[in-house]
Protein backbone atom coordinates (compact mmCIF):
# COMPACT_ATOMS: atom_id res chain seq x y z
CA UNK A 1 0.00 0.00 0.00
CA UNK A 2 2.97 2.36 0.43
CA UNK A 3 3.48 3.31 -3.23
CA UNK A 4 -0.26 3.63 -4.00
CA UNK A 5 -0.67 5.93 -0.99
CA UNK A 6 2.31 8.06 -2.02
CA UNK A 7 1.03 8.46 -5.57
CA UNK A 8 -2.55 9.12 -4.46
CA UNK A 9 -1.27 12.02 -2.39
CA UNK A 10 0.47 13.36 -5.49
CA UNK A 11 -2.73 12.93 -7.51
CA UNK A 12 -4.63 14.87 -4.84
CA UNK A 13 -2.11 17.68 -5.32
CA UNK A 14 -2.79 17.75 -9.06
CA UNK A 15 -0.27 15.30 -10.52
CA UNK A 16 -1.27 13.11 -13.42
CA UNK A 17 -0.70 9.59 -12.08
CA UNK A 18 -0.69 6.54 -14.36
CA UNK A 19 -0.95 3.26 -12.47
CA UNK A 20 0.59 0.28 -14.27
CA UNK A 21 -1.28 -2.94 -13.45
CA UNK A 22 -1.27 -6.57 -14.47
CA UNK A 23 -3.86 -7.62 -17.06
CA UNK A 24 -6.28 -10.17 -15.68
CA UNK A 25 -6.30 -9.01 -12.08
CA UNK A 26 -4.42 -5.79 -11.54
CA UNK A 27 -3.43 -4.51 -8.14
CA UNK A 28 -4.03 -7.23 -5.54
CA UNK A 29 -5.93 -4.70 -3.41
CA UNK A 30 -8.72 -4.74 -5.99
CA UNK A 31 -9.68 -8.19 -4.75
CA UNK A 32 -9.10 -8.02 -1.00
CA UNK A 33 -12.85 -7.48 -0.62
CA UNK A 34 -15.73 -5.88 -2.53
CA UNK A 35 -17.33 -3.87 0.26
CA UNK A 36 -17.43 -0.48 -1.51
CA UNK A 37 -20.33 -1.15 -3.87
CA UNK A 38 -18.39 -4.01 -5.46
CA UNK A 39 -14.90 -2.45 -5.28
CA UNK A 40 -12.19 -3.21 -2.70
CA UNK A 41 -12.03 -0.76 0.23
CA UNK A 42 -8.23 -0.55 0.17
CA UNK A 43 -8.27 0.12 -3.56
CA UNK A 44 -10.85 2.91 -3.33
CA UNK A 45 -8.91 4.55 -0.51
CA UNK A 46 -5.56 4.47 -2.32
CA UNK A 47 -6.28 4.99 -6.00
CA UNK A 48 -8.62 7.88 -6.67
CA UNK A 49 -7.53 10.36 -9.29
CA UNK A 50 -5.34 7.89 -11.20
CA UNK A 51 -5.40 6.41 -14.69
CA UNK A 52 -5.05 2.63 -15.08
CA UNK A 53 -2.80 1.14 -17.75
CA UNK A 54 -3.06 -2.67 -17.82
CA UNK A 55 0.07 -4.09 -19.47
CA UNK A 56 2.07 -7.30 -19.10
CA UNK A 57 5.55 -6.39 -17.89
CA UNK A 58 6.68 -9.98 -18.37
CA UNK A 59 6.50 -9.47 -22.13
CA UNK A 60 9.16 -7.53 -24.04
CA UNK A 61 6.46 -5.56 -25.84
CA UNK A 62 4.83 -4.62 -22.54
CA UNK A 63 8.11 -3.44 -21.06
CA UNK A 64 8.80 -1.37 -24.16
CA UNK A 65 5.43 0.37 -23.76
CA UNK A 66 6.16 1.26 -20.14
CA UNK A 67 9.67 2.46 -20.99
CA UNK A 68 8.18 4.75 -23.64
CA UNK A 69 5.77 6.08 -21.03
CA UNK A 70 8.60 6.70 -18.56
CA UNK A 71 10.45 8.71 -21.19
CA UNK A 72 7.78 11.41 -20.91
CA UNK A 73 7.29 11.16 -17.14
CA UNK A 74 8.64 13.33 -14.34
CA UNK A 75 8.56 10.61 -11.68
CA UNK A 76 8.65 6.80 -11.62
CA UNK A 77 7.49 5.13 -8.38
CA UNK A 78 7.62 1.38 -7.80
CA UNK A 79 7.34 -1.06 -4.92
CA UNK A 80 7.99 -4.31 -6.75
CA UNK A 81 9.76 -7.16 -4.99
CA UNK A 82 13.50 -6.54 -4.39
CA UNK A 83 15.39 -6.87 -7.67
CA UNK A 84 12.24 -7.18 -9.83
CA UNK A 85 12.50 -3.69 -11.32
CA UNK A 86 16.10 -4.32 -12.35
CA UNK A 87 15.19 -7.63 -13.98
CA UNK A 88 12.48 -5.83 -15.96
CA UNK A 89 14.87 -3.15 -17.14
CA UNK A 90 13.17 -0.60 -14.89
CA UNK A 91 15.86 -0.22 -12.25
CA UNK A 92 16.81 3.28 -11.13
CA UNK A 93 20.38 3.08 -12.44
CA UNK A 94 19.27 2.19 -15.95
CA UNK A 95 16.36 4.65 -16.03
CA UNK A 96 18.46 7.54 -14.73
CA UNK A 97 21.21 6.77 -17.26
CA UNK A 98 18.63 7.15 -20.04
CA UNK A 99 16.75 10.02 -18.40
CA UNK A 100 18.97 12.04 -16.01
CA UNK A 101 16.09 14.40 -15.22
CA UNK A 102 13.83 11.56 -14.00
CA UNK A 103 12.94 11.17 -10.32
CA UNK A 104 12.84 7.48 -9.38
CA UNK A 105 11.43 6.22 -6.09
CA UNK A 106 11.77 2.63 -4.94
CA UNK A 107 9.82 1.55 -1.85
CA UNK A 108 10.82 -1.66 -0.10
CA UNK A 109 10.56 -3.30 3.26
CA UNK A 110 14.16 -3.03 4.37
CA UNK A 111 15.97 -0.94 1.76
CA UNK A 112 18.68 -2.08 -0.65
CA UNK A 113 21.65 -3.92 0.80
CA UNK A 114 21.98 -5.44 4.24
CA UNK A 115 21.01 -8.92 5.43
CA UNK A 116 17.24 -8.29 5.31
CA UNK A 117 16.98 -6.70 1.86
CA UNK A 118 15.43 -9.77 0.19
CA UNK A 119 12.91 -10.59 2.92
CA UNK A 120 9.17 -10.30 2.47
CA UNK A 121 7.90 -7.14 4.06
CA UNK A 122 4.18 -6.92 4.69
CA UNK A 123 3.03 -4.19 7.04
CA UNK A 124 2.56 -6.49 10.03
CA UNK A 125 6.06 -7.95 9.62
CA UNK A 126 7.61 -4.50 9.51
CA UNK A 127 5.64 -3.41 12.59
CA UNK A 128 7.12 -6.40 14.40
CA UNK A 129 10.70 -5.78 13.26
CA UNK A 130 10.43 -2.06 14.07
CA UNK A 131 9.37 -2.70 17.67
CA UNK A 132 5.95 -1.13 17.14
CA UNK A 133 4.04 -4.28 18.08
CA UNK A 134 6.08 -4.58 21.28
CA UNK A 135 4.63 -1.30 22.59
CA UNK A 136 1.10 -1.66 21.18
CA UNK A 137 -1.65 -3.41 23.09
CA UNK A 138 -2.12 -4.13 26.76
CA UNK A 139 0.31 -5.52 29.35
CA UNK A 140 -1.30 -8.93 28.77
CA UNK A 141 -1.32 -8.96 24.98
CA UNK A 142 0.68 -7.32 22.19
CA UNK A 143 -1.12 -6.08 19.08
CA UNK A 144 -0.35 -4.54 15.74
CA UNK A 145 -1.87 -1.15 15.06
CA UNK A 146 -5.35 -1.21 13.56
CA UNK A 147 -4.17 0.59 10.42
CA UNK A 148 -1.16 -0.26 8.17
CA UNK A 149 1.22 2.09 9.95
CA UNK A 150 4.41 0.91 8.22
CA UNK A 151 2.86 1.29 4.78
CA UNK A 152 1.47 4.72 5.63
CA UNK A 153 4.77 5.93 7.08
CA UNK A 154 6.71 4.84 3.99
CA UNK A 155 4.09 6.31 1.66
CA UNK A 156 4.20 9.66 3.43
CA UNK A 157 7.99 9.88 3.19
CA UNK A 158 7.90 8.80 -0.46
CA UNK A 159 5.44 11.55 -1.42
CA UNK A 160 7.43 14.11 0.54
CA UNK A 161 10.65 13.04 -1.15
CA UNK A 162 9.11 13.40 -4.62
CA UNK A 163 8.10 16.99 -3.91
CA UNK A 164 11.57 17.82 -2.60
CA UNK A 165 13.22 16.17 -5.62
CA UNK A 166 11.04 18.07 -8.06
CA UNK A 167 11.81 21.34 -6.31
CA UNK A 168 15.53 20.59 -6.51
CA UNK A 169 15.18 19.62 -10.20
CA UNK A 170 13.50 22.94 -10.95
CA UNK A 171 16.69 24.61 -9.71
CA UNK A 172 19.37 22.23 -10.98
CA UNK A 173 17.78 20.26 -13.83
CA UNK A 174 18.88 17.00 -12.19
CA UNK A 175 16.51 14.20 -11.24
CA UNK A 176 16.96 11.95 -8.20
CA UNK A 177 17.29 8.33 -7.18
CA UNK A 178 15.32 7.76 -3.97
CA UNK A 179 14.91 4.68 -1.79
CA UNK A 180 12.33 4.54 1.01
CA UNK A 181 12.47 1.71 3.56
CA UNK A 182 9.32 0.75 5.44
CA UNK A 183 11.46 -0.38 8.38
CA UNK A 184 13.32 2.91 8.62
CA UNK A 185 10.15 4.97 8.18
CA UNK A 186 8.43 3.06 10.99
CA UNK A 187 11.39 3.16 13.39
CA UNK A 188 11.60 6.92 12.78
CA UNK A 189 7.98 7.13 13.91
CA UNK A 190 8.85 5.29 17.15
CA UNK A 191 10.11 8.61 18.50
CA UNK A 192 9.70 8.76 22.27
CA UNK A 193 9.87 5.03 23.05
CA UNK A 194 12.98 4.71 20.88
CA UNK A 195 14.86 7.44 22.71
CA UNK A 196 13.55 6.36 26.09
CA UNK A 197 14.90 2.85 25.48
CA UNK A 198 18.24 4.10 24.12
CA UNK A 199 18.94 6.25 27.16
CA UNK A 200 17.28 4.32 29.98
CA UNK A 201 18.04 0.76 28.89
CA UNK A 202 14.48 -0.18 29.90
CA UNK A 203 12.01 -1.64 27.39
CA UNK A 204 8.83 0.47 27.30
CA UNK A 205 5.70 -1.15 28.69
CA UNK A 206 2.53 -1.76 26.72
CA UNK A 207 0.02 0.66 28.18
CA UNK A 208 -3.19 0.16 26.21
CA UNK A 209 -4.44 3.71 25.69
CA UNK A 210 -2.26 4.93 28.56
CA UNK A 211 1.10 6.68 28.35
CA UNK A 212 4.30 5.55 30.03
CA UNK A 213 5.37 9.09 30.96
CA UNK A 214 2.08 10.87 31.70
CA UNK A 215 -0.70 10.44 34.28
CA UNK A 216 -3.64 10.61 34.34
CA UNK A 217 -3.81 9.55 30.68
CA UNK A 218 -6.36 6.82 30.00
CA UNK A 219 -10.01 6.04 29.52
CA UNK A 220 -12.16 6.65 32.57
CA UNK A 221 -15.73 5.59 33.31
CA UNK A 222 -18.73 7.86 33.08
CA UNK A 223 -22.19 6.93 34.26
CA UNK A 224 -23.18 5.87 30.72
CA UNK A 225 -19.90 5.22 28.91
CA UNK A 226 -16.22 6.14 28.84
CA UNK A 227 -14.18 9.29 28.27
CA UNK A 228 -10.48 9.59 27.50
CA UNK A 229 -8.69 12.15 29.65
CA UNK A 230 -5.07 13.19 29.10
CA UNK A 231 -3.58 15.59 31.65
CA UNK A 232 -0.15 16.64 30.37
CA UNK A 233 0.82 19.31 32.88
CA UNK A 234 0.53 20.13 36.54
CA UNK A 235 -1.72 23.07 35.67
CA UNK A 236 -3.94 20.58 33.87
CA UNK A 237 -4.17 18.52 37.06
CA UNK A 238 -5.20 21.62 38.99
CA UNK A 239 -7.89 22.43 36.44
CA UNK A 240 -9.16 18.84 36.44
CA UNK A 241 -9.51 18.78 40.22
CA UNK A 242 -10.90 22.28 40.73
CA UNK A 243 -13.00 23.06 37.65
CA UNK A 244 -14.17 19.60 36.56
CA UNK A 245 -14.38 17.53 39.74
CA UNK A 246 -14.80 20.28 42.40
CA UNK A 247 -12.02 18.79 44.52
CA UNK A 248 -9.48 21.60 45.10
CA UNK A 249 -8.31 19.75 48.20
CA UNK A 250 -6.60 17.17 45.95
CA UNK A 251 -4.50 19.65 43.95
CA UNK A 252 -1.66 19.69 46.48
CA UNK A 253 -1.87 16.01 47.47
CA UNK A 254 1.82 14.97 47.51
CA UNK A 255 0.97 11.78 45.57
CA UNK A 256 -0.36 13.82 42.64
CA UNK A 257 1.07 17.34 42.81
CA UNK A 258 3.54 16.78 39.93
CA UNK A 259 3.43 14.57 36.86
CA UNK A 260 6.44 12.61 38.14
CA UNK A 261 4.56 11.91 41.37
CA UNK A 262 1.40 10.96 39.48
CA UNK A 263 3.32 8.51 37.29
CA UNK A 264 4.95 6.99 40.39
CA UNK A 265 1.46 6.63 41.93
CA UNK A 266 -0.32 5.79 38.66
CA UNK A 267 -2.66 3.15 40.12
CA UNK A 268 -3.89 5.47 42.87
CA UNK A 269 -4.19 8.38 40.45
CA UNK A 270 -6.21 6.37 37.94
CA UNK A 271 -8.46 4.99 40.67
CA UNK A 272 -9.14 8.47 42.00
CA UNK A 273 -9.97 9.94 38.58
CA UNK A 274 -12.21 6.96 37.79
CA UNK A 275 -14.10 7.40 41.07
CA UNK A 276 -14.69 11.09 40.35
CA UNK A 277 -15.51 10.72 36.64
CA UNK A 278 -18.13 8.03 37.24
CA UNK A 279 -20.41 10.60 38.86
CA UNK A 280 -21.14 12.27 35.51
CA UNK A 281 -22.73 11.26 32.23
CA UNK A 282 -20.53 11.26 29.12
CA UNK A 283 -22.21 14.42 27.85
CA UNK A 284 -21.87 16.25 31.16
CA UNK A 285 -18.28 15.14 31.73
CA UNK A 286 -17.08 16.06 28.23
CA UNK A 287 -18.77 19.46 28.52
CA UNK A 288 -17.07 20.17 31.86
CA UNK A 289 -13.69 19.02 30.54
CA UNK A 290 -14.02 21.21 27.44
CA UNK A 291 -15.07 24.24 29.50
CA UNK A 292 -12.03 23.76 31.76
CA UNK A 293 -9.66 23.28 28.81
CA UNK A 294 -8.64 19.81 30.01
CA UNK A 295 -7.66 17.57 27.06
CA UNK A 296 -10.31 14.89 26.63
CA UNK A 297 -12.18 12.94 23.97
CA UNK A 298 -15.11 10.63 23.52
CA UNK A 299 -14.07 7.10 22.58
CA UNK A 300 -15.56 6.97 19.08
CA UNK A 301 -15.96 3.88 16.99
CA UNK A 302 -15.16 4.06 13.29
CA UNK A 303 -18.79 4.95 12.60
CA UNK A 304 -18.55 7.84 15.01
CA UNK A 305 -15.42 9.08 13.25
CA UNK A 306 -17.09 8.91 9.82
CA UNK A 307 -20.05 10.88 11.16
CA UNK A 308 -17.91 13.27 13.22
CA UNK A 309 -19.63 16.65 13.53
CA UNK A 310 -16.35 18.46 12.93
CA UNK A 311 -16.03 16.89 9.47
CA UNK A 312 -19.62 17.80 8.71
CA UNK A 313 -19.23 21.37 9.91
CA UNK A 314 -16.06 21.83 7.82
CA UNK A 315 -17.64 20.24 4.73
CA UNK A 316 -14.82 17.68 4.36
CA UNK A 317 -16.69 15.00 2.36
CA UNK A 318 -16.88 14.81 -1.43
CA UNK A 319 -17.89 12.09 -3.90
CA UNK A 320 -15.70 10.19 -6.35
CA UNK A 321 -16.64 7.67 -8.99
CA UNK A 322 -15.73 3.99 -8.98
CA UNK A 323 -16.39 1.44 -11.70
CA UNK A 324 -19.71 0.62 -10.02
CA UNK A 325 -20.98 3.74 -8.28
CA UNK A 326 -20.18 7.08 -6.72
CA UNK A 327 -18.90 6.91 -3.16
CA UNK A 328 -17.94 9.35 -0.39
CA UNK A 329 -14.28 10.37 -0.10
CA UNK A 330 -12.59 12.53 2.51
CA UNK A 331 -10.72 15.61 1.35
CA UNK A 332 -6.94 15.49 1.93
CA UNK A 333 -5.91 16.93 5.31
CA UNK A 334 -3.81 19.78 3.86
CA UNK A 335 -6.23 22.59 3.03
CA UNK A 336 -5.18 25.22 0.49
CA UNK A 337 -7.05 28.51 0.88
CA UNK A 338 -7.25 29.04 -2.88
CA UNK A 339 -7.43 25.52 -4.29
CA UNK A 340 -9.51 22.38 -3.78
CA UNK A 341 -7.94 18.99 -4.63
CA UNK A 342 -9.29 17.48 -7.87
CA UNK A 343 -10.51 14.26 -6.14
CA UNK A 344 -10.65 12.22 -9.36
CA UNK A 345 -12.35 8.88 -9.91
CA UNK A 346 -11.05 5.44 -8.92
CA UNK A 347 -10.09 3.71 -12.19
CA UNK A 348 -11.36 0.39 -13.46
CA UNK A 349 -8.59 -2.02 -14.43
CA UNK A 350 -7.13 -0.90 -17.76
CA UNK A 351 -9.72 1.84 -18.17
CA UNK A 352 -7.19 4.22 -19.72
CA UNK A 353 -5.06 1.72 -21.62
CA UNK A 354 -6.28 2.61 -25.11
CA UNK A 355 -6.07 6.37 -24.54
CA UNK A 356 -2.55 6.14 -23.10
CA UNK A 357 -1.26 3.92 -25.92
CA UNK A 358 -2.75 6.32 -28.46
CA UNK A 359 -1.07 9.20 -26.65
CA UNK A 360 2.25 7.38 -27.05
CA UNK A 361 1.67 7.48 -30.80
CA UNK A 362 0.66 3.85 -31.30
CA UNK A 363 -1.57 3.34 -34.37
CA UNK A 364 -5.05 1.97 -33.80
CA UNK A 365 -4.18 -1.30 -35.54
CA UNK A 366 -1.18 -1.84 -33.25
CA UNK A 367 -3.30 -1.09 -30.19
CA UNK A 368 -5.80 -3.70 -31.31
CA UNK A 369 -2.95 -6.16 -31.82
CA UNK A 370 -1.46 -5.79 -28.32
CA UNK A 371 -4.95 -6.07 -26.81
CA UNK A 372 -5.65 -9.21 -28.83
CA UNK A 373 -2.31 -10.71 -27.78
CA UNK A 374 -2.99 -10.06 -24.08
CA UNK A 375 0.03 -7.75 -23.79
CA UNK A 376 -2.36 -5.01 -22.72
CA UNK A 377 -5.94 -4.96 -21.53
CA UNK A 378 -8.77 -2.48 -21.27
CA UNK A 379 -12.30 -2.23 -19.96
CA UNK A 380 -15.06 0.31 -20.37
CA UNK A 381 -16.49 1.87 -17.25
CA UNK A 382 -20.02 0.60 -16.71
TrEMBL record:
The signal peptide, as residue positions, is: none
Species: Gordonia hirsuta DSM 44140 = NBRC 16056
Highest taxon, organism lineage: Bacteria
Asked if Transferase is a keyword of the record, the answer is yes
| InterPro entries found in the cross-reference section | CoA-transferase_III_domain, CoA-Trfase_fam_III, CoA-Trfase_III_dom3_sf, CoA-Trfase_III_dom_1_sf
> What name goes with this protein?
CaiB/BaiF family protein
- SUPFAM superfamilies xrefs: CoA-transferase family III (CaiB/BaiF)
**GO molecular function of the protein, one example?**
CoA-transferase activity
Which keywords are on file for this protein?
A: Transferase
Question: Is the keyword Transferase in the record?
Answer: yes
Pfam families, per database record: CoA_transf_3 (PF02515)
